[in-house]
Structures are given as C-alpha cells and as structure tokens.
Design goal:
Elements lengths: L1 H32 L3 H37 L3 H28 L1 H5 L6 H14 L3 H16 L4 H23 L9 H25 L8 H5 L3 H34 L2 H36 L4 H33 L7 H16 L1 H15 L5 H26 L4 H25 L9
Helix pairs in contact: 1-7, 1-11, 2-3, 2-5, 2-6, 2-10, 2-11, 3-6, 5-8, 6-8, 7-8, 10-11, 10-15, 11-12, 11-13, 11-14, 12-13, 12-14, 13-16, 14-16, 15-16
C-alpha cells in the first residue's frame, strides 16, 4: 500500500499539471476554432513543428533525468547540479536549428506538412513568433524534470498554472481584441503563447534560486563537466533523443499523411488530439512518477525493490487507463459540439477517439516500459530500437498506404496505425520480464 501512496503522491501533481496544460490547449483550440477550420489547421500544423522540437528535447532532458533521479537517490547534490548544467547547455544547443528554421523559413518548413497555400501562409505567421519561445521552453523543461527528480512535483504544477492561465487571458485579449487590444487572430494566439512561456521560464528559475533548492547551477558546475562524465551522459542521452526523434518524426509523418487527405482531416486530428490529451495526461503521469521512484532506487542498486515497484505501478496504471478511456469516449460526444467545425469533422473525431481509447491500455503499457522503466534503468538503446523500428516499418507505411494509396477514411487509417502499438507491446513485455533494464548508471 505504501508503494501506491508514493506513486500517487508524485503522479497526482504531474497529472494535474498535464490536465491543466491540456485544458489550456483545449481552450486555445476552441478560441482559434472560432476563426474557422483554416485557422485550426494552420495552428495545428505549426504546433506539429513545436511537437517535433518538444519530443526531441524531451528525449534529451529525460536522458538527463536518468542522472537527476539516480544522483538524488544517492543524495549527491553536486552530481545533480552538474547533470542539470550539462542538460541545459545541450538543450539550448539543440534548440538552435529549430529556432533558425522556424523563425527565418516558416513557409518552407510548413510546406513539408501541407499543400494548402492558405494554411501555410497563416501558419507561418504563428510559427515565426512561437519560435522565439523555444529557448525559454528548453530551460523550463530541464528545470521541471529536475524538480520532479527531487520529488518537488508541486512546484512545476504551480508554474504551469501561472503560465497557462496567462496564456488563456492573453489569448482572450489578443485573438479577439478585448479591453482595447487590437484584434490579431492567429498572430495574437502566437504572441500570447510567447509571453506565457517567458513568464513560465522566469518563474521556474526564480523559485529554484530564491528557495536555494538542490539542482541549482553555478559556473563551477560547467567547469566540472569532465570528458568522462560527458561521454557517460550522452551514452544514455543520445539513444533517448534518437528514440524521441524517430517517434516524433514518425508521428509527424502521420500528420503529413492526414494533411494530404484534406484540410477537414487536419482539423479533425487537431480536435481529436486535444481531447485525447486529457486521458493520456492522467495515465502517463504514472509513468513519469514510476521513472522517478525507480530511478532513485537504482541509484543505490536496490534492484529487486525497483522491480517490485514497477509491477505495482503497472497494475495501477492499467486500471486507471480503463476508467480514463471510458470517460473520454463519453465526454467526447458532448465536447465536440463546442467546436465550430463541420458535422463531417465532428463525426470523424467521435469515431477516432473511440478507436484511440480502445487501445489506451496497450499504449500505456508501452509508455510505462519505455518512459517509466527502461529509461529509468538506462536501457535506452533497446527502447530506441523497438520504438523506431515498429513505427517506421509498420505504422508509417500502413498510414501512407491506407491514406494516400487506398484513400481510406481518417478513422480507418488511424486504426491501421494501432497495429504498431500491439506489436511493440509484445516485444516490450518480454524485455520487461527479462529484468535487463535494471541498471545503476552511476556505477
């Protein structure tokens, strides 16, 4: 029972943080939806670029998170700060190409996602502005992971509330021109996002330093990054980055397929992803909590205890996923009516959400293994190989054949992509049972 309490204590604030984030995305999409399907599609495609950037960055930072959790398990604050310093440098470095492409060549970037010129031109306005927030987001993400690793999960929750409530308020002012502000539409939504991320970044850094929390960095920590530590760090971080890059690029390929199926399909996918986020945010928070707890244990070589915790976390996650899936399917039939889209788009959303939620327990099992267990133990190369191969050799080809060759409907094409999740779960089950992922990366 004690294990379940520890998991819930860490996962609940993470889940609330993600639910708030998803709620704001929902409101954001709802506000932009008032401008029509082209606006939804334009912002949706622009956010695909951010999605790609976010996941690669997530891979890098979660690679650093392996060291955060295990160093904190050993109570080595200097090692924790040194890991944070290297992660921040790396995160900012990898932000450069995304910033350059998105800020200076937004039309060229979006041209890869959609053939619709109207959508590209409107999306370029949005993408160019939010590109300025990429470095800010990198610093915020590293800080959030560090705070989770030392079990201060309530602080990222508070910062998320501040940041995203600011985003909603600024959206209201700038999209629709309220309280004397100009009516900027999609451009206003981008400016609101930029300002909100600036607020979030400054808030996270100030809290860590003013409260003198573990993990804060100074110049000496950058000097203490030895070639040996650098090599050890990237031995685990590069596969997690490659994993997220392969996965995010594959998901981006899905979006490109959907975009070529029509603007209404882009709008349906955008609305569906926003609603789906509520269920996934609650369930996948358990994977993040498990990663922290198990990482702390592996840092002190408590292997059997870590495996026992993983089994209990998996049972809890699967139970919650079933309830979350049922609730999400039910509320979708009502929520979709709030969007200013055609009946055809609403119908596609209802059907596809039902398909997605039917596979949620399988998707969560995969997420628990890749993000929660294998990554906590530094088994990052195996998870990269499994995720990359199943997505690119099964999921992407099936979506391309179904959507572009056979001209199947959006729900049917989405169903085809779930084949990848099923096969992946079988492979990960055997890896999990082998216990080869139970490693102390600091040794």
């Amino acid at each position: 029972m004690e294990v379940y309490k520890r998991i819930i204590k860490i996962s609940l604030p993470i889940a609330l943080q993600q639910v708030i984030f998803t709620s704001v995305n929902f409101v954001d999409t709802l506000m932009i939806g008032a401008l029509g399907e082209v606006a939804i599609a334009a912002v949706g495609l622009s956010n695909q670029v951010f999605f790609l950037y976010n996941l690669i960055l997530f891979g890098l930072v979660s690679g650093g998170g392996i060291f955060f959790a295990q160093y904190w398990g050993k109570q080595e604050e200097e090692g924790l700060s040194r890991s944070v310093a290297l992660t921040i440098i790396s995160a900012l470095f990898f932000s450069i190409p995304f910033f350059v492409l998105s800020f200076f060549y937004p039309n060229l970037v979006l041209n890869f996602f959609s053939p619709d010129i109207e959508v590209i031109n409107l999306g370029a306005v949005y993408l160019k502005i939010i590109a300025l927030s990429f470095p800010l987001f990198a610093i915020s993400l590293v800080t959030s992971f560090m705070l989770r690793s030392i079990k201060k999960v309530h602080i990222p929750l508070i910062i998320t509330i501040i940041e995203l409530s600011s985003n909603i308020f600024l959206n209201y002012l700038l999209i629709f021109g309220k309280l004397g502000f100009p009516t900027l539409g999609v451009k206003g939504a981008a400016i609101a996002t930029l300002i909100a991320r600036l607020i979030g970044c400054i808030s996270s850094v100030l809290i860590v330093y003013l409260r003198k929390m573990p993990g804060r960095i100074y110049f000496r920590h950058f000097r203490e990054i030895t070639p040996k530590f650098f090599k050890s760090y990237f031995h685990y971080a590069i596969p997690t980055m490659a994993n997220e890059f392969a996965w995010s690029l594959g998901v981006t390929m899905y979006s490109i397929v959907y975009a070529h199926m029509g603007t209404n399909v882009i709008a349906a996918q955008r609305v569906m992803a926003t609603i789906e986020g509520f269920a996934t945010s609650i369930t996948f928070s358990i994977a993040n909590a498990a990663s922290v707890i198990i990482g702390n244990m592996l840092g002190t070589s408590r292997y059997e205890e870590a495996y026992d915790v993983s089994k209990k976390a998996l049972k809890l996650a699967e139970l919650i996923s079933i309830f979350a899936a049922i609730i999400c399917i039910i509320i979708t039939f009502f929520i979709v009516e709030l969007f200013d889209v055609s009946e055809e788009v609403k119908k596609m959303v209802r059907i596809t959400i039902t398909i997605s939620m039917s596979f949620l327990p399988i998707k969560l099992f995969n997420g628990m293994n890749v993000v929660g267990f294998l990554r906590a133990g530094g088994d990052t190369r195996f998870s990269f190989i499994v995720e990359g191969s199943t997505l690119w050799f099964i999921g992407v080809p099936l979506s391309a054949i179904g959507g572009l060759v056979l001209n199947l409907s959006f729900p049917v094409v989405y169903l085809l992509t779930m084949t990848e999740e099923v096969i992946k779960s079988i492979i990960l089950y055997f890896r999990y049972k082998s216990k080869k992922w139970l490693n102390n990366v600091l040794e």
